[in-house]
Amino acid sequence: MTPASPEIERSLVQDFFERHPEEAADHLEISTPSEVAEALSQVAPETATEVFRRLSPAKALDILVGIDLDRGRELIRNLDPPQAGALLGGLDTPRCDDLLAGLARAEARELHALMQHPTGSAGRLMDPRITVFRPDMKVEEALERLRSIRQRRRVLDPLIVDSDGRLSGTVPIQEVVLAESETTLLSLVKGLPVAVSAFTTREEIVETMERHKLTSIPVVDYDNKPLGIIRLNEMVSAVEEELSADLVSITGASKEERALSKVSFAIRKRLPWLQINLATAFLAAAVVGLFEDTISRFTALAVLLPVVAGQSGNTGAQALAVVLRGLALREITLRHWPQVVTKEFAAGLVNGLGIALVTCVGVYVWSGSPGLVFVIGLAMVVSMAIAGVAGAMIPVLLARMGQDPAQSSSIVLTTVTDVFGFFSFLGLATVFSSLL
Description:
This protein is mainly α. The chain has 3 domains: 6-116, MgtE N-terminal fold; 132-244, Roll (CBS-domain), CATH 3.10.580.10; 263-435, SLC41 divalent cation transporters, integral membrane domain (Tetracycline Repressor, domain 2, Orthogonal Bundle), CATH 1.10.357.20. The chain has 20 helices and 6 strands. The strands form 2 sheets. Strands 1-2-3 form a 3-stranded mixed sheet, with no helix packed on it. Helix 4 packs across helix 6, helix 17 packs antiparallel against helix 18 (337-367) and helix 18 packs antiparallel against helix 19. The radius of gyration is 32 Å and the shape is elongated.
């Protein structure tokens, strides 16, 4: 038999793609990127786009990497802007820049804006290389598709999309494996799909996944079309990284600094906060200066001053750590601040009483002065209660002001606990100086 001429072959491909774009997309899903690029190059740009938009994002990304730049720009230009932005965001920077370079300036600017998502949002955390399945696809066909991609990416819960590419539901991979071969994927979908938008915050993602007991969650655009997927293990890694960054920033160091960062970088990031810390230290020193006469009369106060300040500082640091962790893991929100402050005040008060009791015994054995015992005991209770409130309030206030609640909280806290610790101890000693 005489082989068909290239013109006849292109005509047949064009006709098939025009009449059956979904079937064509399903066929291309199991083809190599080079084969897909060759097939798309044989049809009109509008027809190629209709098939291309029905491909899974993973396959579409593979094609954009290998296809001719001019053809790739045509495909990008004809896609819905959100879908095009999501795909471009999944490419490496050089390839993305090459594709954008041939577009009109306004188009390139719009797509570049759509590629950007806020830090910590679903758009930043998602993996855009996802595979989608048709609702009428049988289990046997779905398993064949899964086998063809198992070396390239993980599929935990296959995403089912309708003829318009909108998310219809997800199916746990276990149910697909255990179902009869002739069962359709749509029959395995139970309930409405759970998904998040690209602008959903990390805290909301964690809450949604926890509430629905999910191992992965799809990210969709405004039209409910899948853009990517967030997996539980990757979500946990992101949260751990953020928590470790918060731990660094509490001390005034930069989140971007690493153990092997350049000395100049470390100095540039740390020195401003050290200067702020110096200013706050002078503030605390000024408080001590207010009671210079009292200290000169009762030198024992200078010896015991670090004891009060140290205990109040530790109390505040404990409250600060608990509140920061609660905010990061979304155990609490800003509306919980009255309960949090009340709890930390009560904890500081009771702990203060316990510490004061031991302190009073030690001070009495050392000094033999009932008046000094009374002053330091009362100061310990007051300063530790205030420190607990400060440790709870500082991150909440920073968050309400739109600032990072972890950024250098300890510097502010140290100032507050030192000032109130010194003021309560020396102020009470001045008031009750007749007892000393």
